[in-house]
């Protein structure tokens, strides 16, 4: 089984070499398609054993991805971005996809520092029926599903990780590019929930809070139009952003949160928000079991099939919330313990230690 890695790149001088270094000697072919770099991305790529191609940018990510697929010759395809790093997790990872019963496979994506991993479909057979769709947030899911139905195949899992390092860049610089692409795609397919979320996120970044709220509400409306079988936890993003925005603005979110929790009952971030609001209202009985459950999760090994979570809700935020609940209940010694636990990972470590000392003093005065 030969594996081809495909990349589309533009002005990726900062990232390209580390990506190619992670692939060289592990995959059998690396296809790099440049879409108009004006820096030294192409020169840096040529330092590695790559098949280099060029594709004129046409405001269509799928067209560029599919152009890269046309140049690949392997039996299987890995699609990867320049700001990602390829990392096999087990020695037999190739055998996990070299099987006749699967058309594609998910791997483990680490989206950013401080967040948990989730599964993403990045590996698939080189098959002319499998192609990317969507001018932005391009995916092969639709064509992979069609191949699976036609050939009686399924999607497997492969013990490979991708470490994404690019989210720390200034996202505001990408807004002028992303907004017209998102609007164009949503005009063609208004049921793309994630694109509604991303449109809202980009509008908020641009300072248009009203536009962001409207986009997120449109995303929620799109969820309602989907068949129940098509709704995954990853479709929850418009709810999450809208609830956080409205709550942060002092608006009531009870009905919206109840609706979201009913649709996504296992969503840990929604559970966290619900418990946080309950604690703010003084409902410790409702909040406490959620914080205890979240604090019991090992953030370093936790992996969800659909969602990445901020590790803070399992570490210092959970411990700080447990401390506050204990303090308000008069359990000052317990509060001190939780504040010290929070201090282990909290960015405001000194504040947590001061609160631990105050709680200990209250416990000693009883």
TrEMBL record:
A Pfam family hit: Glycos_transf_2
Domain of life: Bacteria
Domain Glycosyltransferase 2-like: 7-88
Keyword Transmembrane: no
InterPro entries on file: Glyco_trans_2-like, Nucleotide-diphossugar_trans, TPR-like_helical_dom_sf
GO molecular function per UniProt: transferase activity
Annotated keywords: Transferase
Matching PANTHER family: GLYCOSYLTRANSFERASE, POLY-BETA-1,6-N-ACETYL-D-GLUCOSAMINE SYNTHASE
UniProt similarity note: Belongs to the glycosyltransferase 2 family. WaaE/KdtX subfamily.
Protein name: Glycosyltransferase
